[in-house]
């Protein structure tokens, strides 16, 4: 019971801190949209490595909002997250034993 209360406290504290975060209004005219998000998601691991050695950002800011986020998540999941082959491989391994 003590572990559940501690975990709830940590999660609650994290949510409280995240709720206070805000971003400034974008001042750009031509913001990156869905297709830019898709490309940035596909190259995200390389951008992360580049960010270690140079000033490279993984996620574009400012962006167009939800469509950019959707494209980013779709790009990273298609290229790096695996697809039906991964699900088939995991399912085969699980059912084999």
Q: Strand-residue fraction?
A: under 5%
Total of DSSP H or I helical runs spanning 4+ residues: 5
Instruction: Work out the number of β strands.
Output: 0
Task: Measure the end-to-end span.
Answer: 34 Å
- State the helicity in percent bands: 55-70%
Q: If you compute it from the alpha carbons, what radius of gyration comes out, rounded to the nearest whole angstrom?
A: 19 Å
What does this structure look like?
- With 97 residues, the chain is mainly alpha-helical.
- It has one domain (28-96).
- It is 66% helix and 0% strand.
- It has 5 helices and no strands.
- Helix 2 (34-42) runs parallel beside helix 4.
- It is extended, with a radius of gyration of 19 Å.
- The model has no long low-confidence stretch (mean pLDDT 78).
Write a concise keyword list for the protein shown above.
97 residues, mainly alpha, 66% helix, extended
Present the secondary structure layout:
Blueprint: H1 2-19, H2 34-42, H3 44-53, H4 66-79, H5 84-96
Helix pairs in contact: 2-4
Summarize this structure briefly.
This protein has 97 residues and is an all-alpha fold. The protein has one domain.
